[in-house]
Amino acid sequence: MPGIERRDINDPGALRALAHPLRLRLLDQLRFAGPATATTLAARLGESSGATSYHLRQLARHGFIEEDLGRGSRRERWWQHVPADFRFGPTPERSAELRAASGDLARFQVERDVQLLHGYLGQQERRPDWRDAVLMSNSATHLTKAELAELGERLIEVVNAYSRPPEARPADAEPVAVLLYGFPWPGREPPA
Predict the structure, then answer these.
(1) What is the DSSP annotation of 30-50?
(2) Where in the chain are the domains?
(3) Most buried residue, 66, 96, 130, 143, by CB count within 10 Å?
(4) What is the reported pTM?
């Protein structure tokens, strides 16, 4: 994947750092809107700058964000997202603590994803120029576990191929949320 480093998260502390609604919102602001200060983020999210500052430091502690050293001063710290292909899915080999933290994070992310989708649907009429480009697909297929894993890797590869640093993006590029899900249909009982 050009320019995007894969990072497997195997530390329950790092997963717990992400499994917090405000931290996910802060991370989204930095991913989609770009570098910002704790004060700016607090104003955008309706939080106190003390709370945003604390949660930004927690995200930085685990390497999800970093200080943007090219901006700010000693009194004004700017933060930026660290581009990476973060992976945290639970596997049987992982500890119970890691599986629990991964499950908590997955639940928070799905809630966040639903909010993102509802946010788009609520304002889609203001962006008719994007209507034909928006991807809304619901598919059903029959795959083995290995095929599902391969499909996931290939989809992530395609998405990551479009990830570019700000200076390499087309002038008319806008932040786009790409939400990919693939899982066994929950209506079928697993084989005995």
Answers:
(1) IIII--EEHHHHHHHHT--HH
(2) 6-127
(3) 66
(4) 0.82
